[in-house]
Write a structure and sequence with these properties.
about 110 residues; 5-stranded mixed sheet
């Protein structure tokens, strides 16, 4: 799993990516641009309004674990997972189901 770090790519995803929203998770996706790693990339976002750094870091750890468990083929896609208020406390099964449904809805997975 490769992560997205360039600010211009992050801005591109938030501006033009397709979105699917769930109570504990927001998922954005866009095709990977030419010249970038085509193996699939992921970005985990937990905004400051969620609370202190400890809580935001927990949200990101939970989302990373969700992506690892799914082991989905993201080849050719950039995917962003944005934490919501209930992300840190959500049951793993709920996050897994939301992530899978988002990938299906966005046309990344069947």
């Amino acid at each position: 799993m490769r992560t997205i770090t360039a600010h211009n790519e992050i801005d591109r995803l938030f501006a033009g990516g397709r979105r699917v929203s769930y109570p504990a998770l927001l998922v954005l996706a866009a095709p990977t641009p030419e010249g970038a790693d085509r193996g699939g990339r992921v970005l985990f976002v937990a905004g400051k309004r969620l609370g202190p750094a400890v809580h935001r870091n927990r949200c990101k750890r939970v989302m990373r674990e969700t992506v690892r468990r799914a082991a989905a083929d993201l080849a050719g896609w950039d995917v962003v997972l944005v934490a919501r208020k209930g992300t840190a406390a959500a049951e793993p099964a709920v996050l897994d189901r939301s992530y899978h449904e988002a990938l299906v809805s966005l046309g990344i997975q069947r």
